[in-house]
Amino acid sequence: MPDATFETGLTKAAVERRRVVIVGGGLAGLAAASALASRGLAVTVLESRPRLGGRASSIIDRESGETIDNCQHVAMGCCTSFRHFCEAVGCADLFETQRELFFVGPPGNAKVVRFASSSWPAPLHLASSFLRMPWFSRAEKLKIAIGLRALARDHSRADCSFQDWLNRQRQPEAVQRRFWHLVLVSALSESLDRISFRHARKVFVDGFLANRNGWQVSIPTVPLDDVYEFRIATTLRESGVQIRLKAGVKRLQIVEGCVTGVELRDGSQVAGDDFVLAVPHYLVQALLPEQLAGVAEVAAVDRLETAPIASVHLWYDQPLTELPHATFVDRLSQWMFNRTVLSDARSATTRDGVHADGEVGCRLQVVISAARDLSTMSEQEVIAKVNQELRQIWPERHEARLLSGRMITEHRAVFSPLPGVDEHRPIQQSPIPNLQFAGDWTRTGWPATMESAVRSGYLAAENVLDRVGQPENMVPADLPAARLYRLLFS
Ligand SMILES: Cc1cc2nc3c(=O)[nH]c(=O)nc-3n(C[C@H](O)[C@H](O)[C@H](O)COP(=O)(O)OP(=O)(O)OC[C@H]3O[C@@H](n4cnc5c(N)ncnc54)[C@H](O)[C@@H]3O)c2cc1C
Description:
Layout: H1 12-17, E1 19-23, H2 27-37, E2 42-46, E3 58-60, E4 67-69, E5 75-76, H3 80-88, E6 95-98, E7 101-104, E8 112-115, H4 127-131, H5 138-153, H6 162-168, H7 173-188, H8 197-209, E9 217-220, H9 224-238, E10 242-244, E11 249-255, E12 258-264, E13 269-271, E14 274-277, H10 281-287, H11 290-293, H12 296-299, E15 306-316, E16 325-328, E17 335-338, H13 339-342, E18 362-369, H14 379-393, E19 402-415, E20 435-437, H15 450-467, H16 483-489
Parallel strand pairs: 1-2, 1-14, 2-10, 7-16, 14-20
Antiparallel strand pairs: 3-4, 5-9, 6-9, 7-8, 11-12, 12-13, 15-18, 15-19, 16-17, 17-18
Helix pairs in contact: 2-15, 3-15
The chain binds flavin-adenine dinucleotide.
């Protein structure tokens, strides 16, 4: 039986014999696996589904035969751990960094504004793009600038709802909706009243103010399954990680305060020395014995609330737009990704919008975060509404025919970043020394994102390495804050 106490100074051979069992093949589990395998430990990943990637996944659309993602997953430039992970597992080339975004104004003023960094240093690098947005009056632009300055200067530790904070700053309702909500709903998938001040501040400071590259988004050029199933799984297997799919874990086996193994749903058992539990937060309790599930910091996980995200996939017989992506102001549709333009030659369509069989077409994916309001609409109603909005934005393409559409809703997509949420997020080291928690929901300082998942996996790996006497920092540094930003706001 493994020793539950910290073990230091193991020989290289002993480290290599050290068996780490990771439950869950989402980003958190895979990041822990990559980090530990690269340091010579024997890693097994147990994943209940027939594929890796967890909440970042693809399905085959029966009607078109195409592989489509459950939802577009993008990472911002400030997501340094996610980028490090992609490089470590050799999939960074499957992402394309977008150095410009496109904002489409509200109905009646649907002008497209190109949003890109100027030569000015952060935090002024995006000012000229922002000033070009004609749907804000001069007074509104001034209000937003004052609000951003107040946000960067507010280092208070107390948390409150971001809506309360905006109200205290006297930010007008239209500005709250068209600026603050627009940015935050895509980043945090919640409405302003359900977003904590701290998480909102992090998005604006890390993403838009402190470093000139923080806001750039990285988008996969292939379906997510190609990233996880083919590239990451292959790299991990080559580095010695044993990946077992359809290996759902029923419970952890704990003897005398130490995890000795896991029991799978088929009744078989897998023994190990260290364990990483990397399942979504709402499944954690069910896998733990009562005495551990009842410990205050573990029980608190059940208080995390969740938010839904919907993605609407639309197939047209000809291109509706050449833009690779666009963010919409004041519409049900929030963010459009033109999968035909974004996909590379390996997928069914090419950059010119020409299908592999020579037919010209276009597939758009529209994301609707914090999608609670959609529960009163049928799938067909949502598709019709999104189609109508896109046609209003690009009326010149009226001859384009909608061939088909489908909506995928993930009801528990992310945990809600409510005020005080971080108190319900446990650290990676569980009360049991040889058990680590990992997942976007653990305490990483980040909202529910791929970045948070990877960070949690790296932090869990750090704890395991500590136990074998090989302490190491696995989490890469954040993007540095620009000198002008530090001068103004530190
Ligand atoms: C619709 C949607 C859109 C999103 N968009 C973005 C985005 O644009 N950018 C971004 O950064 N983030 C986005 N996210 C969030 C991001 O997907 C998650 O933060 C991240 O993938 C979480 O990774 P994880 O490893 O913590 O958890 P998960 O991905 O949930 O992985 C947990 C794994 O554990 C497995 N598992 C569960 N129970 C068991 C068991 N008993 N035995 C074995 N295995 C088990 C699951 O099958 C799963 O594979 C989005 C999420 C959704 C749902």
